[in-house]
Design a protein that fits this description.
single chain; alpha/beta; Oxidized Rhodanese, domain 1; 9 helices; 12 strands; globular
């Protein structure tokens, strides 16, 4: 299965044995928008703000990266709880078009699961006139998937700092330009405004305008303009929209990884990491 699928493809294959659709919708930071109760028929909830992210604290800094990846064994348990089985193909979508679905795709990909993002997400599905149905808590089947973890999918602050110092990879920051510059305050308490020294601003919306990914050639050009041909470390506010950059890079045939803690870890007041604020 390709990393990005269309609404037409999903409509044709929906209901096939071994194809699972997950609703990875989440509210943007700083909002209390409710998650949609209705989604693509047969979809199950993949709660990135809840069960599918770490909720513990480390080093006294509060939640690590806010949406940091679960340990592989815990992730496997969660996937089994929602009914993911060995050999399943998983299509992720979200209510914004392409926002948090890419994070779910990246997590699943890191776990060795065949996964894709629905281009345009739930808005594109509804716009095409397809029906909606309540989002379920699980597929109803007993999950038995085994996670085959790819440790290269995520990096930490130390690896990111080393890349910034050496120039061996470019750190692309998917947050808005105003948050990158420091003109806009961070929406999370205790997190400073600004960006990592040497990071490059590439808003995820420039890769997926109106919730749809640009064509492959255009993605390759945007990435080349930002990072040349160097490997990419994708970052954002909390590791979610960084995965949109990783998706773009994967589609364009580029090497990429995700800084899991992202700005909510690096920019935290207690991290001791340097910050550039231009605002």
């Amino acid at each position: 299965m390709r990393d990005l699928v269309t609404v037409d493809w999903l409509a044709e294959h929906l209901g096939e044995d071994g194809l699972v659709v997950i609703d990875a919708s989440m509210a943007p930071p700083g909002t209390d928008d409710p998650l949609p109760e209705a989604g693509i028929p047969g979809a199950v909830r993949f709660d990135i703000d809840g069960d599918f992210s770490r909720q513990d604290a480390a080093d006294g800094l509060g939640p690590v990266g806010v949406h940091e990846m679960l340990p592989p064994a815990r992730f496997e348990q969660r996937l089994r709880e929602i009914g993911i089985r060995a050999g399943d193909r998983v299509v992720a979508y979200d209510a914004a078009g392409i926002y948090s679905s890419a994070r779910a795709w990246w997590m699943l990909r890191a776990a060795g699961i065949d996964a894709a993002v629905l281009d345009g997400g739930l808005p594109a599905w509804a716009e095409a006139g397809h029906p909606l149905a309540p989002v379920a808590a699980s597929t109803g089947a007993p999950g038995d998937v085994t996670v085959r973890w790819d440790a290269s999918a995520f990096v930490d602050a130390h690896v990111t700092a080393a890349a910034l110092a050496s120039g061996e990879a470019d750190v692309l920051d998917a947050r808005s330009p105003s948050r990158f510059s420091g003109e806009e305050a961070d929406p999370r308490e205790g997190v400073r405004a600004g960006h990592m020294p040497g990071a490059i601003s590439l808003h995820y919306g420039a890769l997926a305008p109106e919730g749809r990914m640009l064509p492959t050639n255009a993605l390759a050009q945007r990435l080349r303009e930002a990072a040349g041909e160097r490997p990419i470390i994708a970052s954002c506010g909390s590791g979610v929209t960084a995965a949109v950059v990783a998706l773009a890079a994967t589609i364009a045939g580029r090497e990429a990884t995700v800084y899991d803690g992202s700005w909510s870890e690096w920019g935290h007041e207690g991290s001791g990491r340097p910050v550039v604020a231009e605002g």
